[in-house]
Write a sequence for this structure.
């Protein structure tokens, strides 16, 4: 794992921190650009995001959310509450 702080990026010179992270079970390394101040905070935030992404992927597949074509906020809210009650 390698953490580089305060890298300037782009014409606006945005200050980013870079984390190069590769664990044994990962098929390839992750290069994460983020504004969090430490490698540990970055890893914790990234794991949380990946968990949320996996949950949404599972929900979309399990409940065929793309095929329900909910177009109103009310229907999406009801569907979300239904999913929460089931789990």
């Amino acid at each position: 794992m390698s953490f580089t702080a305060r890298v300037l990026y782009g014409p606006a010179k945005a200050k980013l921190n870079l984390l190069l992270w590769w664990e044994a079970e990962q098929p390839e390394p992750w290069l994460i650009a983020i504004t969090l101040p430490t490698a540990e905070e970055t890893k914790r935030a990234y794991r949380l995001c990946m968990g949320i992404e996996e949950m949404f992927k599972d929900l979309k597949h399990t409940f065929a959310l793309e095929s329900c074509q909910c177009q109103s906020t009310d229907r999406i809210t009801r569907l979300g509450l239904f999913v929460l009650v089931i789990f």
User: Anything to note?
Assistant: The mean pLDDT is 85. DSSP finds three helices and three strands in the chain. The two ends are 36 Å apart (CA to CA). The first helix runs from residue 39 to 63.
